[in-house]
């Protein structure tokens, strides 16, 4: 079983999403002794945002300068990691109602026609079927219900884009209200970790 562990939180040791993805991955490894984990930290690896030059670069990179070639190769490596994964664990904090730009840059490398999707006469078809995605979703406020739910461009986007890739098995382990008070933060983290410890995520990932 191949597991791809992605972190995108920019707060280092203070990041709740990192804490949750680590817990999820640890539980998967404990439950599945055959789990082979590949880790990528999008906040520290300085992945460049997608450019037109990268998209237009020839497949064999002939005549491409070293900097551009390196950027294209990083994108191809990330795509292959994703395609090889059976389960993908994604740390996705909400920043300004959406996802971190680092996480968006990673997703942009995955959205490749002929690899993760294709267009047919009946519309787009996802090509990355059969994967399980577990998202550790963290929010400063409450966006899962009520008036503020209209401002959620984080979880809704992730479910949409993974669905576009053909992945319908997307689970969210959520900790929200983290910035409301110390008690609210402690309660949200405890509830998320309880969900992980109870094995619900593991059953879904197996």
TrEMBL record:
Presence of keyword Flavoprotein: yes
Keywords: Flavoprotein, FMN, NAD, Oxidoreductase
Limits of the Flavodoxin-like fold domain: 1-197
Transmembrane segments: none
Matching Pfam families: Flavodoxin_2
SUPFAM superfamilies, sorted: Flavoproteins
GO MF entry, a single one: oxidoreductase activity, acting on NAD(P)H as acceptor
EC number, UniProt record: 1.6.5.-, 1.7.1.17
Cofactors named for this entry: FMN
Catalytic reactions on record: N,N-dimethyl-1,4-phenylenediamine + anthranilate + 2 NAD(+) = 2-(4-dimethylaminophenyl)diazenylbenzoate + 2 NADH + 2 H(+); 2 a quinone + NADH + H(+) = 2 a 1,4-benzosemiquinone + NAD(+)
Co-factor remark: Binds 1 FMN per subunit.
Residue numbers binding FMN: 15-17, 94-97, 138-141
Function: Also exhibits azoreductase activity. Catalyzes the reductive cleavage of the azo bond in aromatic azo compounds to the corresponding amines.
HAMAP family: Azoreductase_type1
Subunit structure: Homodimer.
Sequence similarity: Belongs to the azoreductase type 1 family.
Protein name per Swiss-Prot or TrEMBL: FMN dependent NADH:quinone oxidoreductase
Species whose genome carries this gene: Ensifer adhaerens (Sinorhizobium morelense)
Lineage, highest ranks first: Bacteria, Pseudomonadati, Pseudomonadota, Alphaproteobacteria, Hyphomicrobiales
